[in-house]
Amino acid sequence: MLRKRLVINLFALCFSMLAVSSNPILAETALIPNITGPAEFARISAPDDVQKFLKEHIKLPEEPFANNMAQRTFLRRTKHEIIELLSTQGYFSPTVTFDKRISNKVEIPVIVIDPGPMANIRSVEIEFQGSIADDETQQDEIKKWRKAWPLKVGKPFLSADWEEAKAVLLSQVSYKKFAAARIVKSEAVVDKENAQVALYIVIDSGPVFYFGELEIDGLERYDPEMIENHRPFRTGEPYSKELMHRFQIALQNIPHFGNVSVNIDPDVSKHNASPIYVTVTETKSQRIAVGGGYSSNNGARAEVNYSNHNFLDRAWNFSTLLRLEQKRQTFFSGVNTLPNENNIYYALGATVQRTDIEDLVTVRQRVDAARIYQTYNTQWQYSLNWQREEKRPDGAINQTVEALAFDWRYRYHIVDDPVNIRRGNVSELRIGGGLDSVFSDQDFLRLYGRQQNWWPVGKRDVFYLRGEAGYTLASSRFGIPQEYLFRAGGIQSVRGYDFLSIGVREGNAIVGGRVLATGTAEYTHWFMRNWGAAAFVDAGSAADTIEDMDLFLGYGAGVRWRSPAGPLALDLARGHKTGTFRVHFSMVVNF
Q1: Beta bridge partner(s), residue 131
Q2: For residue 573, what are the domain limits?
Q3: pLDDT of residue 544
Q4: Which of UniProt's keywords are assigned here (predicted)?
């Protein structure tokens, strides 16, 4: 019996050795001692950077192979995938072999990879055909594009970078004039022996395109003129993708439409007057909205808003708002006309508001009318308002003020992204005042300016500077509405101090003074796409005279989150003068 068992065991051993030797993939190496660890059924062995890349794209088995045939099929298929994947990373001469390991007493296959040398770029040749080649005004642009080409000679070749560079170049060519530009030839010739790649690309610009007439689809209640008046270009002007984008944004920003699509006809036979196709979906003309929120300036908020976007069947915007905040309560009703062909519209409104901030209670009634000129990045506004204000400072004399004031406002902004700004600037100037002889209790003239700048730092970070200054020319602050005086403190001012807590003391209250100056320096580091942290310093003051100004300094740090509406900020700031800490919650971009 013992001899019989020995013969059976020897036969089984020979059969297993024969099975190993008969597997052409695994037979080239011998077994390696046992390796313990988590259950696995195949392994990749490669340099760290290559292994990390492959593990993101190669799916290893999660259960044992059914048989040797299944294992051989997996290894052959995976070898082919690895060779293709490594070629996208510039490795065109990889060596892929197979080994075996014992893991948890189970024999598993190991894919051993030597990626070989990474290929570098040997030469770059970029050619242009079509109208752009003969356009003298485009030669400087062509030189700029060639100089900015990111895949320089000697740099490693990556397929993703090659595809992105071609797409960017085509986008640059088609951005202005050449709406039908296309890549007619692109080659990446690989020299495996010397690990080099020669790049060659040809772009045909096609003819110069000119804006034609609008062809509008989707209008039911509104006149096509309202869309015509929003377009930032005229028929016959050279095509510009930026102007097309501005046109679409302008239409999306008005409440009359839900979905908006703006496209140019790319047919080269129509390039002299290419039609612009505008497709819109009209929204309901009347809407009631209810909302709520919180800010550290005014506390909790609840509001209800009724709007009618087709007021008097003229597509005017009528709105009525009731907003209740802990420190401020507002009722507003107003109507805006649509912009005309000169980008001018008119606004008429009435407001009743009560505030209770820093022991100062104000009750204001206001009526105003405005003429507004607005383009993509510029706004000029002329307005006339009459207001009556009751001022009730705790511990001081109550006062009722009336004023008929004329206001002029100019604002210019150019930013890369209105929601998440990394580069850009915003400038604002305001001048307003009234005369004692024309329905005002005192002569006054208010001057105000603000400047905001954003600069990108590295790939993600942002450095931000803000400065503002104001001065009200008058014999005294009495007899002037608080709107035409100045207080500071809180969000968008000097953090570390309560909202509007910096100003002139009357009794126990803080009221507005005639002088203001504040500034901010802030650095934001984005750890991930949507999460970041910021450090900041705020400084400034508000007083009745320049001599009375006393510097208030605040500094701290906070968390940033990119919400769909824009970055939200939660800041902890210390007021240097008081030594106290305050939490500020706000929307970061507010201009």
Answers
A1: none
A2: 345-590
A3: 96
A4: Cell outer membrane, Membrane, Signal, Transmembrane, Transmembrane beta strand
